[in-house]
Amino acid sequence: MAARRAHNPKVVGSNPTPATTSQLQKPSKTTLKSSLVEHKVFTTSSFKVFTNSQKVFTRELLTTFLKSRANGLSPRTITDYEWRLQRFIGYPLTSQGVKDFLDNLTCNNGKWNYFKCIRALVNWLFRNNYIPENPITFVETPRRQKKILPAISFEQLQALLGHCHNDRDKAILNFLWHSGCRLSEAASVKASDFNWIEGTVIVLGKGNKFRKALSGNGFVKDWFTSHDSFELDASGIQMMLKRLGKESGIHCNPHSFRRGFAVHQVKSGLSTRVVQSLGGWEQISMVERYTKSLSFDDALKLWKTTSCEQTGVTTR
User: Fold this and answer.
1) Per residue in 215-225, pLDDT tens?
2) Contacts of 168 (CB under 8 A, 6+ apart)
3) pLDDT digit string (tens) for 84-112?
């Protein structure tokens, strides 16, 4: 039987052409000379051969998988799954197919995000008997360069506030830094979500789950006494921060405020476990990664402060 290419990833990073229904159907007996039919898949290195029993990932499987996620994940997460996994369409659902797909990506650290999506996909396919074995078992996790990510310091926050054009922007910056909330959480928060006596706010967090967070400072409270929301959606907040970054010369994005919150709280003496709970991180490793910018001098200052409080001895 003539060999067919399930996709053509010759242009690295482009969407492969989906495998058609006819490509997945078993050929008639008259065209077969054996029980196994070979299909060739072109990769950047060579032709890979897989048998008819080794399914390729299709648009239909992607749709079914996304529907299974609908009740447990936020719309943004669903969109991220779809955006990444649609590029996997046409690849064999085998360990080699996953490896070939990851090798064709040129996004370096971004490979980890694709790997996570594919891992969730094939785990689900295996549990629901769409594939006979789980291919992710034999795929090595992509390595990531561990960079110290930028975090907005208190001094940088004050500088950015000086470039704000209105009270709304000042309230948003104060809320992001003092609460540690994510962009989506800040964009959807309402005045009725705050408990000013307790100093907390209920936000719709990651995974489409509600959680408690810190309410922010007095500037945030002043804003919400006369406004129901920040009056900007997520993209509007991003554009505002981008403008402030250009005007002030300080690189800032929504997550740099979240990292700044984590670093500031650790510098103030809170444990990473407490900071994890306050910021709503699922894994403590994320807090530890964010606080790597904590210098030895910062740690020494914190140690001296803590030591003095415990012993009552004053250091010079």
Assistant:
1) 999 999 999 99
2) 223, 227, 230, 231, 232
3) 999 999 999 999 999 999 999 988 778 98
Q: In sequence order, which residues have a C-beta less than 8 Å from that of residue 239 and are 6 or more positions away?
A: none
Cβ proximity of 68 and 124 under 8 Å: yes
- Domains annotated for the chain, with CATH where assigned, are 36-138 (1.10.150.130), 154-311 (1.10.443.10)
Q: What is the pTM of this model?
A: 0.60
Mean pLDDT of the chain: 80
Strand partners, 14: none
Residues 6+ apart with CB under 8 A from 62: 82, 85, 86, 89
Helices 167-179 and 254-267, packing angle to 10 deg: 50
**Neighbouring C-beta atoms of residue 193, cutoff 10 Å:** 19
DSSP of the chain: ----BS--TTSTTSPPPPPPHHHHSPPPGGG-SSS--EEEEE-SS-EEEEETTSPBP-HHHHHHHHHHHTTTS-HHHHHHHHHHHGGGTTSBSSHHHHHHHHHH---GGGHHHHHHHHHHHHHHHHHTTSSSS-GGGGSPPPP----------HHHHHHHHHT-SSHHHHHHHHHHHHH---HHHHHH--GGGEETTTTEEEEE-GGG-EEEEE---HHHHHHHTT-SS-S--HHHHHHHHHHHHHHH-----HHHHHHHHHHHHHHTT--HHHHHHHHT-S-HHHHHHHGGG--HHHHHHHHHHHHHHHH-PPP-
Tokens of 217: 């400072």
CA atoms within 13 A on the CB side of 122: 25
